[in-house]
Amino acid sequence: MVNTVVGQKCRRCSQQSARAKGTPDTVLLLRAFAAGVAVAALGALLILKVGLFGGILLALGYGYLVGEAVRRGARRRVHSRLGAIAVAAVAIGLGGMAALFGVPLLAPPVLLFLAVGGGVAFVRASGVW
Fold it and tell me: Which residues are 94's β-sheet partners?
């Protein structure tokens, strides 16, 4: 027997399901990933084509928008897996557009956007902020 908040239960009955723990299902993760990559690619297109390398504030805004897109794609849920998806969306969106336009991935502005934007996207989508 295991003591729980609602009393004693057997070990099998006391285990919570993944849904009860708040783990998002696969369809929700794919939907959030698609929304994140779409916003990341559009933002990267704007940044790279127009040349809006405005520094750290623009990188913060870029990460916030991608994280918010992942969050809304997941029906406003938050989870650490969604944070990881937001970071992957930033890397794929910005990296893909940089490769498409021939911008080197190790250029300092691109690295700034990858690091700061990815960090803010993780924090926003995982529910820390």
Answer: none
Residue 21 pLDDT > 90, yes or no? no
The Cα 69–Cα 121 span in angstroms is 9
The answer to whether 43 and 62 have CB atoms below 8 angstroms apart is yes
Comparing CA positions, the residue from 93, 71, 91, 92 lying closest to residue 82 is: 71
Residue 96, exposed/middle/buried by CB under 10 A (0-12, 13-18, 19+)? middle
pTM of the predicted model as reported, rounded to 2 decimal places: 0.83
> To which residue do tokens 């004693």 refer?
8
What proportion of the chain, given as a percentage, has pLDDT over 70? Answer: 93
> CB of 127 within 8 A of CB of 74?
no
Distances (CA, A) of 8 to 4, 11, 21, 103: 6, 9, 20, 61
Q: What is the DSSP letter of 16?
A: P
